[in-house]
Design a protein that fits this description.
By secondary structure, this protein is α/β, with parallel strands linked by helices. It has helices at residues 2-27, 33-39, 102-105, 115-123, 148-157, 175-181, 217-220, 228-255, 272-280, 286-307, 355-364, 372-378, 393-411; strands at 44-45, 53-54, 59-63, 70-74, 95-100, 136-141, 166-172, 183-186, 196-199, 202-204, 210-212, 317-322, 368-371. It has a 5-stranded parallel sheet with strand order 6-5-7-12-13, sandwiched between helices. A two-stranded antiparallel ribbon has the order 1-2. A hairpin with a 6-residue loop joins β3 and β4 (70-74). α4 (115-123) crosses α13 (393-411) and α5 runs parallel beside α10 (286-307).
Length: 413
């Protein structure tokens, strides 16, 4: 009798799980392994000394985050998004190389709307006396990986062979710092820059997809990784765990808030939220202070490589400081979670970190830069996607215009 009840209970439980699985798959589909893998870009390959670079002649899909339209784009024969060109410049050709991450690559926008293409079109219309009139613009987004250390190594290994007349070195004030933090540096150059970087968190698989080195267990087990219920349960458990940790931290640091005088951290176990406070607030953890010196090392080494090619006393190296959307739109902060370490009034601070710190460093070293934050705040249009943190079409247009203005000023008579 007991055995019969057990069998009935087991069968009922099994069919309940099946019904829930069907219900979730139909009405609340989860990000199963196959769904994620199918959607992932498979155009990555390991770099010689960088975490990854882009495969040449590779097609991939992107999504317009506003219209949800999925469209195709491709890399050229040299592994850059855009049209094909030769390594050696044509007679009289001028070139601009823009390095950076997914902002520069153009997540969410078609080829004709990305900053490199728009800038190239704008440069056709500037004064005929400007030496960069009609210059070709190379989109080196993702060519050296995620962060400034990779941008430098790409410039050293491949970018300079393209003989750029201007290099625009982009720095995104949010995850460019965390991406550097996740990389191990090997070797050391004149300024402390790396000779090789290896990621502690991501890898490229055989298909060319970027994967975390520590893949969540739900995706590691073939039996359950296609189950909507398993993925849903794992996600729910993680969210509950995060909430518990969140409130635990609130209570713990309410009782005993760590004292960090003069930017020197006394507690190396501070949570990530306190580390981010160094970037966007005034509390600084030594790990984040070190990231500023790492950033400067890559910028100084890059500038030297570029400027050594010229003797005309013009700037041929420009740093582009890219703001985060929550520094412009107050409502955007909600996308990043509850306990982020980012000031709640981030969109209202006049001259915020990390922009202020970066500009102080660049000014001290007499490095040319464009701080996009004031320009973006003054513009009445929405320049970032609502559901995503990347520039939309209008954002790319504004950035291209600002670079064009700098070129007119720097190279004008």
């Amino acid at each position: 009798m007991v055995k019969k009840h057990f069998i009935v209970a087991f069968v009922s439980f099994f069919f309940s799980l099946v019904l829930v699985e069907i219900f979730l798959a139909r009405f609340f589909p989860q990000k199963t392994y196959k769904a994620l893998y199918k959607k992932a870009i498979s155009c990555f390959t390991e770099g010689i000394n960088t975490v990854f670079t882009l495969k040449p002649n590779c097609s991939f899909s992107l999504t317009d985050y506003e219209t949800k339209e999925v469209f195709e784009t491709r890399t050229n024969s040299l592994g850059y998004r855009g049209y094909d060109f030769e390594v050696k410049k044509r007679f009289g050709e001028k070139r601009i190389l823009i390095s950076g991450d997914s902002f520069i690559l153009g997540f969410g926008v078609k080829d004709g709307d990305m900053v490199s293409y728009v800038l190239e079109e704008k440069l056709k219309k500037i004064s005929s006396t400007n030496p960069l009139k009609g210059a070709s613009v190379i989109n080196a987004g993702y060519a050296g990986g995620f962060g400034p250390d990779g941008y430098y190594l790409h410039l050293k290994e491949k970018g300079m062979s393209l003989s750029p007349d201007l290099v625009v070195f982009s720095v995104f004030v949010f995850n460019d710092f965390s991406d550097m933090e996740n990389n191990e540096w090997f070797g050391v150059g004149k300024y402390g820059q790396p000779r090789k970087i290896v990621s502690k968190t991501i890898m490229v698989d055989d298909r060319g997809v970027l994967l975390p080195k520590d893949i969540p267990i739900v995706y590691r087990l073939p039996i359950i990784r296609e189950s909507h219920l398993a993925v849903f349960t794992t996600k729910a458990f993680s969210q509950i765990k995060e909430k518990i940790n969140h409130y635990s931290d609130l209570i713990r640091f309410k009782i005993s808030l760590p004292v960090i005088p003069s930017g020197e951290a006394k507690d190396s176990s501070l949570p990530a939220a306190y580390e981010r406070s160094c970037l966007f607030g005034e509390i600084c953890h030594r790990k984040n202070l070190h990231l500023y010196s790492d950033l400067l090392a890559t910028i100084l080494a890059s500038r030297e490589m570029v400027e050594d090619q010229f003797t005309d006393n013009k700037s041929h190296f420009l740093v582009l400081i890219i703001p985060a959307d929550f520094q412009i739109y107050p409502e955007a902060l909600s996308k990043y979670g509850d306990f982020t370490g980012i000031p709640l009034n981030a969109a209202e601070i006049d001259n915020p970190n990390p922009q202020r710190k970066i500009k102080e460093i660049l000014s001290w070293e007499k490095i040319s830069y464009i701080d996009l934050l004031p320009v973006f705040r003054e513009n009445k249009k929405r320049l970032y996607f609502m559901e995503d943190g990347h520039w939309n079409k209008d954002g790319h247009e504004i950035v291209a215009e600002e670079i064009k203005k700098w070129i007119e000023k720097n190279y004008g008579n």
